[in-house]
């Protein structure tokens, strides 16, 4: 696989436009976002803090949200600890996966790292977590933290070509107890194209 690296000033640009200009309009087939959450002093009794990241990767489907809830779950009802992946269309959850339910973040000055992946398939798309690591949950991600949505569940075309990292930053944040967060940071973005190229963007941009 061929790889191209871009400098840090690309933060906030439309990834697809920069990539297409350089690579003669291939289509995006996979996006990876590297996230980092640094916690100062969690509170197990209050399930604090609680964080949700949101990707809106399909420009033609602005109501299709791909979300990760950290230290809580929200569907079908609130649950403690762990993490949950959700795909929602018009506020209706169409797919979800729950991991480490009731295992609350509890280490002072803990850092949680993970990569969010959305990838087109022949008949839909996959959304999941890979390369997760934390003191509380150890290594996490893979098949236990993944969901699949069939194209038949979505009206209209599924295309990643309108993806913007800025949308992920502006729609993610701490939903409860932000005073217990050091930072929530989108570190890098990698885009994989249909012609086999991969481009990596270093952002190191905080949501808070």
Distance between the termini: 35 Å
The largest sheet, given as strand count, sense and whether it forms a barrel, is: 8 strands, mixed
Fraction in helix? under 10%
Q: Mean pLDDT, nearest integer?
A: 90
The CATH architecture: Sandwich
- Stated plainly, the CATH topology is called Jelly Rolls
Please work out how many helical segments DSSP would assign. Answer: 2
Instruction: Find the count of extended strands (DSSP E, 2+ residues).
Output: 13
Structural class: mainly beta
How do you describe this structure in short?
By secondary structure, this protein is mostly beta strands. It is built from two helices and 13 strands, in the order E-H-E-E-E-E-E-E-E-E-E-H-E-E-E.
Description:
The chain has 208 residues and is mainly beta. The protein has a single domain (2-206), classed as Jelly Rolls. It has helices spanning 15-23, 165-170, and strands at 2-6, 28-39, 50-55, 64-73, 79-89, 92-99, 111-121, 124-134, 138-140, 146-150, 173-176, 181-193, 197-206. Strands 1, 2, 7, 8, 9, 10, 12 and 13 form an eight-stranded mixed sheet that branches. The protein has a five-stranded antiparallel sheet with strand order 6-5-4-3-11. A hairpin with an 8-residue loop joins strand 3 and strand 4. The longest helix is centred in the N-terminal third of the chain and has 9 residues, at 15-23.
């Amino acid at each position: 696989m061929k790889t191209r690296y871009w400098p840090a000033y690309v933060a906030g640009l439309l990834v697809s436009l920069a990539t297409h200009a350089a690579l003669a309009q291939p289509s995006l087939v996979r996006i990876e976002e590297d996230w980092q959450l640094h916690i100062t002093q969690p509170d197990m009794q209050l399930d604090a803090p609680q964080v949700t990241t949101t990707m809106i990767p399909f420009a033609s489907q602005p109501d299709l949200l791909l979300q990760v809830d950290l230290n809580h779950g929200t569907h079908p009802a609130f649950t403690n600890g762990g993490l949950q992946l959700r795909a929602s269309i018009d506020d209706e959850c169409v797919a979800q996966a729950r991991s480490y339910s009731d295992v609350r973040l509890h280490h002072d000055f803990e850092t949680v790292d993970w990569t969010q992946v959305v990838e087109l398939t022949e008949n839909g798309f996959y959304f999941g977590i890979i390369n997760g690591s934390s003191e509380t949950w150890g290594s996490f991600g893979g098949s236990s933290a993944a969901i699949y949505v069939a194209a038949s569940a979505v009206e209209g075309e599924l295309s990643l070509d309108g993806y913007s990292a800025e949308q992920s930053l502006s729609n993610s944040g701490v939903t409860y107890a932000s005073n217990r967060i050091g930072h929530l940071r989108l570190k890098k973005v990698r885009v994989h194209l249909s012609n086999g190229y991969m481009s990596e963007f270093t952002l190191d941009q905080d949501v808070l």
